[in-house]
Amino acid sequence: MSEASDRDAADPLAPFREKFDLPDGLIYLDGNSLGPLLHSVRDRIADVVSREWGQDLITSWNRNGWMELAGRVGGKLAPIIGADPDDVIACDSTSVNIFKLMSVALKLNPGRPVILSEKRNFPTDLYIAQGLVEYLGPPYEVRLIEDGVEVADHLSDDIGLVMLTQVDYRTGRKLDMAGITEAVHKSGALVLWDLAHSAGAFPVDLRGANADFAVGCGYKYLNGGPGAPAFLYCAKAHQDRIQPLMSGWLGHASPFDFSSDYAPAPGIARHIVGTPPVLSLAALDEALTLFDAVDFTQLAAKSAGLTAFFMDEVARRSPDHGLSCVTPIDAGRRGSQVAYRHANGYAVMQALIAHGVIGDFRDPDIIRFGFAPLYNSYQDVETAAETLAEILEQEIWQDPRYQTRSAVT
């Protein structure tokens, strides 16, 4: 048996793979962009459409618990991100939730008009921040840290909010959430964490880190489906101090009183804005059920194991083919992905996809491989590294069909 086979035989998470509808002959290493379909999600959606919507119609808001779905999904998310069930709500998109939380954080910290972030943060996070400060006008501003500069070195008494993504979407570098949060609090600022590349890939501990706010999406490692609802976390200490800028009817204390005046619901529920998207929320609800049986210590160990094994295999098989690893070697400093720079990265990735290994590409030259411990195997890793080596050694990527850019990379 190969080393990969030995590792798979000893993997306590291996049985989860059969829960996913993975096409035969395909190695899927893009769960950091879109998680695959679970068999149970297909069944759940069919039931919601045919029975709950088709037969029970509007009575499903009560009969089938549609009205409580956002909170129920938040409760399922809570142990995955190290939170209490009443600190998390599933709603809206990541971008909308960032706007909602940034606006209230600045109001909670008057006299501190600066949002601090990293220049390499995910673009939508930065765009939302830029749009908010443009709307608010001077003295509000966004201040960006250059690559390689520590957050703690740029904290000052005019910063009201620090907004960071725990795992860098390009490189897979993971930030020290607890350490940074402590430093931010000592400076008098609040912190908002984006968990889009964290939740479901490895254990997250918002409560232990004393985080103020967090957001994340449901469609990557959580496998909730394309465009699945996002989630929003707010620490208890802030919940009842917040008057949401987006004060929608379902965030009202008594929405079916149909009062003309807004009164915020208690706690996390005030962050709901409009009618929840039942079909997509039901898909995410079902997908999260899988995590009830997951040992998060095992999840963390396999995430580290898969990424390290891939890095070792690529280094052994492709030492002289123009690859430059940009992901930290230290397992404690990386998420569940590995990324490389290559001058012809887009074409290399297109060739990989054509040969049955799906990852993705990020400008200007990064190829990314996401490793999901619940369905990726060590044999996937070995085969992917072998295929990558073959494409580089034989320069298969030079084929003209791999040079044309698609709209989504």
Task: Give a written overview of the molecule.
The mean pLDDT is 96. The protein has 409 residues and is an alpha/beta fold. 45% of the residues are buried. It contains 13 helices and 13 strands. It has helices at residues 3-9, 39-53, 60-63, 69-81, 94-108, 123-136, 177-186, 206-209, 236-239, 278-289, 296-317, 345-354, 378-393, and strands at residues 27-28, 88-90, 114-118, 141-145, 159-165, 190-194, 213-216, 231-234, 324-325, 337-341, 357-358, 360-362, 366-370. The radius of gyration is 22 Å and the shape is globular. A seven-stranded mixed β-sheet has the order 2-8-7-6-5-3-4, sandwiched between helices. Strands 9-10-13-12 form a four-stranded antiparallel β-sheet, covered by helices on one side. The protein has a two-stranded parallel sheet with strand order 1-11.
Descriptors for this entry?
409 residues, alpha/beta, 7-stranded mixed β-sheet, 4-stranded antiparallel β-sheet, 36% helix, globular
Write a compact overview of the structure shown.
The chain has 409 residues and is α/β, with parallel strands linked by helices.
Would you spell out the secondary-structure blueprint of this structure?
Blueprint: H1 3-9, E1 27-28, H2 39-53, H3 60-63, H4 69-81, E2 88-90, H5 94-108, E3 114-118, H6 123-136, E4 141-145, E5 159-165, H7 177-186, E6 190-194, H8 206-209, E7 213-216, E8 231-234, H9 236-239, H10 278-289, H11 296-317, E9 324-325, E10 337-341, H12 345-354, E11 357-358, E12 360-362, E13 366-370, H13 378-393
Parallel strand pairs: 1-11, 3-4, 3-5, 5-6, 6-7
Antiparallel strand pairs: 2-8, 7-8, 9-10, 10-13, 12-13
